Amino acid sequence: MHMRRHLPQFDPELEGYIQQEEKRQREGLLMIASENLASPAVLEAAGTVLTNKYAEGYPGKRYYTGSAYIDKIEQLAIDRAKQLFGAEHANVQPHAGSQANLACYFALLEPGDTIMAMNLAHGGHLTHGHPVSLSGKLFKFVHYGVEKDTEVLDMDKVEKLAMETKPKLILSGFTAYPRAVPFSRFAAIAKKVGAYAMADMSHIAGLVVGGVHESPVPTHDVVMTTTTKTLRGPRSAIILSKAEHAAKIDKAVFPGMQGGPLEHIIAAKAVCFKEAMTDEYKEYQKQIAKNAKTLAETLMAEGLRLVSGGTNTHLMIIDCTSLGISGKQGADALAECGIYTNFNMIPFDTRKPADPSGIRLGTPALTARGMKEPEMKTIGKLIADLLKNPTEEQKEKNRIAIKELLS
Ligand code: DSN
Predict the structure, then answer these.
(1) What angle do CA 285, 287, 293 make, to 5 degrees?
(2) pLDDT for residue 3
(3) Atom of ligand 1 nearest to the CA of 32
(4) For position 2, what pLDDT does the model report?
(5) 392-406 and 373-388 are packed helices; what angle lies between their axes, rounded to 10 degrees?
(6) CB contact at 8 A, 358 and 320
(7) Where in the chain is the domain with CATH 3.90.1150.10?
(8) For residues 350 and 320, what is the distance between their CA atoms, to the nearest angstrom?
(9) What b-and-e string marks burial along 274-308, b requiring 16 or more CB atoms within 10 Å of the CB?
(10) Which residues have CB under 8 Å from 392's CB, separation 6+?
(11) Phi/psi at 141 (nearest 5 deg)?
(12) Which CATH architecture has domain 44-276?
């Protein structure tokens, strides 16, 4: 818990809400697949006077004086990102994933060009061409999706679609796909049709560092990732690229998409990358995947159906259809006893996005708390018991069991 000295004095109302949120995080099971628990060192770096500094530009080429130390900090983040992922170039300024994705598109393409990406309802992201996103308004998207029977990608069909539609950029990497992304196959297809290969590895960047998932960095022109999720850094993003795209990427981020970089958050990213270079961190990533496997097996043994029949990443999606409840009803019931997940579309969902059939859940934050396979079995059973019987009595039983588990 953060010990604040000034905020409680000046703004007790706000401090009170922060403390309530700290308590919720401490006393709940955080199972939203994209959330994690940043370390105290990351939080400390994010809460520094670096927030006071304007530093538009890049290290050594700023539009503001007084940037000597900021330059050192940003360069440290850049060097560590390159080293960590084996990248030729790193831009650490994107405020968040959506900006980073748009910057990549603008670096390599012209508005109106065709991008091929995953359908949002099958696990893509809003910035992968949904009509409500600027991405979908400014570029032409062709979407691939998973197969109805297996709920996984058929890469021969992805290749066929690429051959037919000749996109200028092929994007891989997803937010709700429980299976490993076949990055090298995506890169080979892009090469075959003369498209740029781009990966959004936001969900799995930590797993990539831990050697649990193939890295897209060697085979792709550009790779973006958010720095939270499995990576366990601050809420932000970076772009990695081949050296030949460096100047275009930098120009697209600043001045293309953004003004002043958030140097306090860049400092927190530098801390995260240092943490990610340790053996302990790699073990942590391996445990995330082991925990997800055990949790998925437990849920299935309890009779729940998981999209694609399981997981080999950090996340899984429960299909609530046969339980007679919607994903939203299920996620709300779980939250009422302190198990936080999010409701999610399943492939070929017949329900609406605001009340879909699925619940997405993951293991990064539980694993950050030191939990292992035995806890996953206990938690899987609690989740299944509640979804099969979402009564007040079962919720109370779960609350007691969770308190015991976390004590
Ligand atoms: N919010 C992220 C997620 O939950 O996967 C995507 O932006």
Answers:
(1) 115
(2) 80
(3) 4
(4) 57
(5) 170
(6) yes
(7) 279-406
(8) 12
(9) bbbeeeebbebbebbbbbbbbbbbbbbeeebbbbb
(10) none
(11) -110, 140
(12) 3-Layer(aba) Sandwich (3.40)
Specify the domain boundaries for CATH 3.40.640.10 within the chain: 44-276
Beta carbons of 220 and 199 less than 8 angstroms apart: yes
Q: Which fold has domain 279-406?
A: Aspartate Aminotransferase, domain 1 (3.90.1150)
Nearest residue (CA) to ligand 1, atom 4: 34
Residue 200 is a catalytic residue: yes
Residues lower than pLDDT 50 in the chain: none
Render the burial of 72-96: b for 16+ CB within 10 Å, e for the rest. Answer: ebbebbbebbbebbebebbbbbbbb
For ligand 1, atom 2, which residue shows the shortest CA distance? Answer: 34
34 lines ligand 1 (CB under 6 A): yes
Task: Of 204, 203, 250, give the one whose Cα is nearest residue 107.
Answer: 250
Helix (H) or strand (E) holding 343: strand 342-344
Q: How far apart are CA 139 and CA 373, in angstroms?
A: 44
The owner of tokens 């990213």 is 269
CA 136 to chain centre: 20
**pLDDT at position 221, please?**
98
Which residues, listed in sequence order, are joined to residue 240 by a DSSP beta bridge? 90, 223
| Mean of per-residue pLDDT scores for the chain | 97
Strand pairing class (196-200; 222-226): parallel
Which pair of structure tokens corresponds to residue 389? Answer: 């019987």
> Per residue in 300-330, pLDDT tens?
999 999 999 999 999 999 999 999 999 999 9
Unique residue bearing structure tokens 């969900």: 203
Contact 125 CB / ligand 1 (< 6 Å) = yes
The 3-class SS string of 244-291 reads HHHHHHHHHHHHHHCCCCCHHHHHHHHHHHHHHCCHHHHHHHHHHHHH
How far is residue 132's CA from residue 345's CA, in Å, rounded to a whole number? Answer: 17
Whose alpha carbon is nearest atom 3 of ligand 1?
Answer: 34
Alpha-carbon distance of 7 to 155, in angstroms, equals: 53
